[in-house]
Amino acid sequence: MPALPIHYVEPVYRPPSEADSLILPVTDGCSWNRCTFCEMYTAPQKHFRPRDEAEVLDSIKRCGDQLGDGVKRIFLADGDAMTLSTRRLANVLEAIRRDLPGVRRVSSYCLPRNLRKKSAGELRELADLGLSLVYVGAESGDDDVLAKINKGETYASTLDALQKLQQAGIKRSVMILNGLGGEILSQQHALNSARLMNEAQPEFLATLVVSFPQGETRLRENFPEWEPLSVLGLMQEMEILLSTLELKRTVFRSDHASNWLVLRGTLGVDKPRLLQDLRAAIAAPEAAPLRPAWARGL
After folding, report:
1. Same domain flag for 211 and 250
2. pLDDT single digits (tens) 184-197
3. Helical H segments across 153-223, by residue range
């Protein structure tokens, strides 16, 4: 296949479920980029900038000429495409609809702060134009943890964004980071994250294990007392989270490469089974089907 007519600034990230999607950058980097746990957009070449609108529309047109109706899904990159104005996002979605008629799903990452200046009506306009799913990195529902990691969000601001998306008819896939509060804040991190999810009732929920391939220096500058949880501690924190969740029809995934114990199901129908599997692993970790460290791919 010839190269795509899209200029990518490496590294490029996308959610695991977007593996078969066309990655279309409409911004580079992350407009916040201050979270002390996150290494995704810290490379020197990843300065935040909105892509030139003409460049993006031209890429869409040229992809349409090259790929026709073979593209079924598009992921709007980079870290927070939703920081663009409603007008610019609408123009992108209209171009996708016109030039890539086979597309059935458009998605993006979304910081809660991206939605503070967007009304539910504006989001409904984007939904009508094809934006059907956003990935929200809530990370935690605990305000102490959020402050320690310099997230720039609170329980209230995250809930407001999730509820606004729900009102607009845009599906929400929320990410919570297992172990983010370290040993000292583990319990309240789990309890308040569950409380946030119970209020928001997202369509999808994923848990990942916090990790620091480049080291913990940035995190410890604002959170010096942070100590990582053991594998057993991570599973115990997960047990608190799962047992507190009261979700009606949320698809739950804890199967990212960072997770030691793979859990999949729909909450709440599968909650008893998931808790049974998790508690069995806690009781006998040496016999549990844990992912080996070499296979975690971090």
Report:
1. yes
2. 999 999 999 999 99
3. 155-168, 186-200, 217-222
